[in-house]
Amino acid sequence: VFTGGFGYAAAAMFFVLGLGKSDVTSVLAIYSMAPFFAAVIAFIVLRETLPRHTVIAMGVAMVGIAAIFQYGVESGEGMGDLYALVSGLGSATYLVSLRRDSGRSGTRILITGGVTMALIALLNGAGPMAIQGVNFIYMLLLGGVVVPLSGLCVAKSSQYLPAAQVGLILLLELLFGPFWIYLVFNETPATENMIGGTLVLVTLFAHTLWESRNVRQ
Questions:
Q1: Cα(87)–Cα(216) distance, rounded to whole angstroms?
Q2: Within 13 Å of residue 57, how many CA atoms lie on the same side as its CB?
Q3: What is the pLDDT of residues 13-62, one digit of tens each?
Q4: Considering just the CA atoms, what is the radius of gyration of the chain in Å?
Q5: Residue 161: CB partners within 8 Å, gap ≥ 6?
Q6: How many CB atoms lie within 10 A of CB 79?
Q7: Strand (E) positions, the chain?
Q8: Residue 148 has pLDDT above 60, yes or no
Q9: Residue 142 DSSP label
Q10: What are the CA-CA distances from residue 64 to residues 48, 50, 178 (Å)?
Q11: What's the rounded Cα separation, in Å, for the pair 183 and 62?
């Protein structure tokens, strides 16, 4: 429970930190490697089989991640990319923790993660009522509507769709994230990040389709 909670907390905190140090395309691309990281951790900890097609997909995706990191180092965004990597590893740890007991400790893991994030924020000087004005409304909508509603929709979708198809739909975040950022903030991703992110997206797409094919067979 504690390992999963700490992983969940790390995923959330370092994702936000990554967005503050790098552009959204690179952060989302690196964070999207979480399923691959989870496969490796499950192979080590749970002795689960690591399929050959997953190993190949990881190798290809890592080429895209390497391109993103290279640009990040050259442009001064390397720390943000590193934060995104820690976020992906934290998310992978959370997923493996859920898998270890078939999700029975899911609620306790989320509570542990939430308390961990709150304590770390307080220790770093955060004030519960420091957010004022329109920012308070935005945070209220994010924490009270967007995050729980999206989580509920993902959970409900698994009742009607195979896991591979759910994963395929979730990949749209890697497409729409940079698009929304461009519309709202007029922030154009760097060419290197676009190339690396596209390689990761295509690899994840192909891997998910292969998984879906295996499930049907």
A1: 32
A2: 25
A3: 999 999 999 989 899 999 999 888 988 999 999 888 888 888 999 999 99
A4: 18
A5: 169
A6: 15
A7: none
A8: yes
A9: I
A10: 26, 21, 17
A11: 29
Q: Note the maximum CA span of the chain.
A: 55
> What is the spatial distance between Cα 99 and Cα 43, in angstroms, rounded to a whole number?
12
Counting beta carbons within 10 angstroms of the beta carbon of residue 18, is it exposed (0 to 12), middle (13 to 18) or buried (19 or more)? buried
Following CA atoms 18, 19, 20, 21 in sequence, which dihedral angle do they give, to the nearest 10 degrees? Answer: 50
State the Cα–Cα distance between residues 211 and 217, nearest whole angstrom: 10
**Residue 15 identity (one-letter amino acid):** F
- Going by pLDDT thresholds of 50, 70 and 90, the confidence category of residue 144 is confident
Choose between 107 and 26: higher pLDDT.
26
- Altogether, the residues listed in the chain come to a count of 217
Predicted local distance difference test score (pLDDT) of residue 3: 92
Task: Look up residue 63 and give its two tokens.
Answer: 């080429």
CB 22 within 8 A of CB 186: no
Q: Which residue type is seen at 70?
A: Q
Distances (CA, A) of 150 to 33, 124, 134: 20, 29, 22
Contact 66, 74 (CB under 8 A): no
